[in-house]
Design brief:
- It is built from seven helices and 19 strands.
- It is an alpha+beta fold and about 325 residues long.
- A hairpin with a 3-residue loop joins strand 3 and strand 4.
- The termini are far apart.
C-alpha cells in the first residue's frame, strides 16, 4: 500500500514538472535591464568642474566632430565616452599644465540620443534620452496616450541591439514589437519596463490615428504638422511652417523617410532642399507618416546612423491643415 502511494506521488510530481515545461513562456512582470551609461555625443553640452582651473569651469558644447576645445588643454575627443572616461582623458591632458588635476564632468544638455514618439499621444515628436528610460517613461514624457489609443509599436534599428520580447519580428534592418497600450500604462506583463534605446521609434496606434508629417533638425522650430483637411502638404510649406532653415543647415543633404502605421520605416530618399526652395526643381508632396530631417554640415554620418529617428530636441505642433 505504501509503495503504491509513493509511486502515485512520484507520478504526480513528474506530471507537474512536464506541465511546467510545456507551459507557454510569458514575459515576467518586470523586464530587468542593466543600467545604461549615457555616452557623450556630438552637439551635447558638457559642464566641467576642475580644481584651480577656473578657465575650464563652465559648460562646453561638443562639436559635430565629437571634439571639445579647451583653454591650454586644446582639442579633446569626447564623443562616445562616458563622463568618467572623459574626466580621465581631460585630467591626463591637464597634467602638462596642472599638478594632480581634479576634474568632474557631467552632461548638462543632451542632443545626441534621440527617440521618436508618434501617433496617438498628447505631444508627438522627438525626445532625448536621459539615462535609463522605459517604454512607460517614453509615453509619459510624450504627454501620455490619447483616449483612442489601443496599441504601442516599438521599433529599433538592429544595430542598436535586440528588443527582449518573445513576439518580436524583424526585417533585417528593424526589430519591432507590438503590445497593448493598456499593458504599458497599467504596468502589466513587463511591457512597461521595456528599455528604450537611442533611435527607437514608439508609435501609439488608435481608433482615430493622427495624420502627422514631422520636420526635424536644422529648422527654426522642429515639430509636427497634422493633416486634418488634406491628404498631403508640400515640403516647402512644411519648412515655412517650421520658421525656415537655421544658419547651420546643410539643406542639400535633406533626408525624407516614411514610417507606416506599424512604426516601420518603409522608404527613404535624399533631396536637395536648396533647389526645391529656390524653385529650380519640382516641390515634393509629403503624406502622413513622412519625416523630413535637415542635417547640419558635416553631420551626414550621424543622420544615417539615426536610421529610423529624427535629430531634434524640440517638440511642437506647428499647425493643422
Amino acid at each position: 500500500m505504501l509503495s503504491r502511494f509513493i509511486s502515485a506521488l512520484i507520478f504526480s510530481g513528474l506530471c507537474a514538472v512536464a506541465a511546467i515545461a510545456q507551459a507557454p513562456k510569458v514575459p515576467s512582470q518586470a523586464v530587468d535591464f542593466a543600467p545604461r551609461k549615457q555616452l557623450i555625443g556630438p552637439e551635447d553640452t558638457i559642464t566641467i568642474s576642475a580644481l584651480y582651473a577656473d578657465e575650464l569651469n563652465k559648460p562646453w558644447r561638443v562639436g559635430i566632430s565629437g571634439d571639445v576645445s579647451l583653454p591650454l588643454v586644446g582639442r579633446v575627443h569626447v564623443a562616445g565616452l562616458t563622463v568618467e572616461e572623459a574626466e580621465r582623458v581631460i585630467a591626463a591632458r591637464m597634467r602638462k599644465y596642472y599638478r594632480d588635476p581634479q576634474v568632474s564632468v557631467f552632461i548638462s544638455e543632451s542632443r545626441s540620443e534621440p527617440i521618436t514618439v508618434i501617433g496617438a499621444v498628447e505631444k508627438p515628436g522627438t525626445l532625448q534620452l536621459k539615462g535609463n528610460t522605459t517604454l512607460f517613461d517614453a509615453l509619459a514624457e510624450a504627454g501620455g496616450p490619447k483616449t483612442e489609443a489601443t496599441g504601442v509599436t516599438l521599433s529599433r534599428p538592429v544595430n542598436q541591439g535586440e528588443i527582449p520580447w518573445p513576439d518580436k519580428r524583424s526585417d533585417g534592418k528593424v526589430t519591432t514589437v507590438d503590445v497593448p497600450v493598456s499593458d504599458v500604462m497599467t504596468r502589466r506583463g513587463g511591457a512597461a519596463s521595456l528599455e528604450i534605446r537611442p533611435y527607437d521609434v514608439v508609435n501609439v496606434t488608435g481608433s482615430k490615428q493622427q495624420r502627422l508629417v514631422t520636420v526635424a533638425g536644422e529648422v527654426v522650430r522642429p515639430g509636427v504638422v497634422e493633416l486634418v483637411t488634406q491628404d498631403s502638404v508640400s515640403i516647402a510649406k512644411i519648412i515655412a511652417m517650421a520658421g525656415g532653415l537655421s544658419h547651420t543647415a546643410a539643406a542639400k543633404h535633406t533626408m525624407i523617410y516614411h514610417v507606416n502605421d506599424q512604426g516601420i520605416k518603409t522608404s527613404s530618399a535624399y533631396v536637395d532642399l536648396n533647389k526645391i526652395l529656390a524653385g529650380k526643381v519640382k516641390d515634393i508632396e509629403l503624406s502622413p507618416g513622412d519625416i523630413v530631417i535637415v542635417p547640419t554640415s558635416q553631420i551626414m554620418s550621424y543622420v544615417q546612423a539615426a536610421g529610423v529617428s529624427a535629430v531634434t530636441t524640440g517638440v511642437y505642433l506647428l499647425g493643422k491643415i
